[in-house]
Design brief:
Blueprint (H helix, E strand, L loop, with lengths): L2 H14 L2 H5 L2 E8 L7 E2 L1 H8 L2 H4 L5 E10 L2 E9 L6 E10 L2 E8 L2 H6 L2
Parallel strand pairs: 1-6
Antiparallel strand pairs: 1-2, 3-4, 4-5, 5-6
Length: 119
């Protein structure tokens, strides 16, 4: 299985609400970084707990409209096209860094001003 396939499976798990399947692809000491957010999540358990409140941190009506994976050496970038109740269309990217076949860092790149305006 390619690293891009692992990331794609993670996005599918999020869409299905299967957060336990999602976090199985992360190392215990993983880090989640989202620009514009005050919190840096460290550790798979903290990440899993935060996923229970996912609806509260996404803009109302958030929907992924297209998703592409670009695989490099020990990393994958997801290009995410999305929309919400207040935005007809936008993009963001997410960098996944791997140790073997497990993710040790997930970093979101978002236009933070636009993201704030979507709420």
């Amino acid at each position: 299985m390619s690293l891009a396939d692992i990331v794609q499976g993670g996005w599918e798990a999020v869409g299905a609400g299967d957060f336990d399947a999602l976090v199985a692809d992360y190392v215990d000491e993983m880090r989640f970084i989202m620009p514009g957010q005050a919190d840096l999540l460290e550790g798979r358990q903290a990440f899993r707990s935060a996923l229970d409140g996912l609806g509260e941190i996404l803009p109302p009506g958030f929907e992924i409209t297209d998703l592409r994976q670009i695989e490099g050496e020990a990393e994958v970038v997801s290009i995410v096209e999305w929309k919400s109740d207040k935005l007809a269309a936008s993009q963001l990217s997410v960098l996944f860094k791997f140790e073997g076949d497990k993710i040790y860092e997930e970093r979101w790149f978002v236009d933070t001003e636009q993201w704030k305006s979507a709420f």
